[in-house]
Design goal:
The protein is mainly alpha-helical. It is built from 13 helices and no strands.
Length: 300
């Protein structure tokens, strides 16, 4: 005679007790694992942030308190005289206008040219395009100082010396921008392009209506980087410009340094002023830099 095992009745209270205990243990373990990386990130943030904080707070100190002992982080008598004197002693408003013109135009052209070049390098199979891409990559192996002399000769022969156009022209094509767009477009499925071609879309329409919207995160990322590069550029404007009315911000800050002595409060104030546009641009556009769902137009 065989017997069958009847299912045992499980107490509902015990099931609820077990289900409540398990997530708590896993949550505790996850919290413990997150302590070390979180602590490391805070330490790194402090190492990077402390010099910047010291720099900004020092700009609020009178010139006589900057090197007085003992050194203090916070100013005893905060003042903005360094900012006022920096703005008044140099043509900072003109420097800002010149720099904004250079940064905006150069950024737009850099993003546009890099986007077109990256798309061609990623989606068209041509031996000359491959050779062109190798030439672009080869420029990254050369120090920037090596390319200054030939760039200067080319821009001078074009009649663009001592003009803002001469600063903008070399920024049209960057190896970093072309590489970023090429790597992104390589991840876009070819089926998406083929589907558009089957629907009768032309190449320009495919690029403008499909590829450009998909590459929006890369465009904004490169725009932030390009704006930062042009705003902080010092060597190239220094070589190209000799008219004080056309100076950029970085050359203007250098003009605050005297031949015999340095007014540190004025120099720090001018440096902080020059940082404001970069911070504003980053805060405004950082939320738009996100991953795009490039498979949204495909069906399983």
């Amino acid at each position: 005679m065989t017997t069958t095992d009847m299912p045992r009745k499980v107490d509902a209270d015990s099931v609820r007790a077990v289900s409540k205990k398990r997530p708590r243990g896993s949550a505790t373990g996850g919290l413990r694992r997150a302590i070390a990386p979180t602590t490391l990130l805070w330490v790194l943030a402090g190492l990077y942030g402390l010099p910047v904080l010291w720099f900004v707070l020092s700009s609020l100190k009178p010139a006589g308190d900057l090197f007085s002992l003992p050194l203090t982080l916070f100013p005893d008598d905060p003042t903005v005289s360094g900012y006022k004197e920096a703005w008044a002693s140099a043509n900072f408003s003109g420097y800002f206008i010149n720099t904004i013109i250079v940064c905006v135009i150069a950024t737009i052209l850099t993003v546009g040219v890099s986007c077109c070049t990256g798309y061609a390098l990623a989606k068209y199979d041509n031996k000359w395009l491959k050779a062109f891409f190798l030439c672009i990559l080869a420029t990254t192996m050369l120090p920037a100082e090596v390319m200054l002399a030939p760039l200067f000769l080319v821009v001078r022969d074009l009649g663009l010396y001592n003009s803002l156009s001469g600063i903008i022209l070399p920024a049209l094509l960057t190896a970093t921008g072309c590489f970023m767009f090429r790597q992104f477009f390589l991840t876009v499925p070819d089926e998406l392009i083929e589907a558009a071609r089957i629907d009768g879309a032309r190449e320009l329409s495919i690029f403008m209506r499909i590829m450009v919207p998909l590459s929006r995160p890369i465009m904004l990322t490169l725009a932030i980087l390009s704006f930062q590069w042009r705003w902080n550029d010092y060597i190239w404007p220094l070589l190209m410009l000799n008219d004080p009315e056309k100076f950029t911000v970085q050359i203007g800050i250098q003009s605050l340094v005297g031949a015999q002595n340095i007014n540190w409060s004025v120099l720090l104030g001018g440096s902080v002023i020059s940082m404001v546009p970069l911070i504003v641009v980053f805060l405004v556009f950082q939320k738009y830099v996100m991953n795009a769902d490039i498979n949204a137009g495909l069906k399983d």
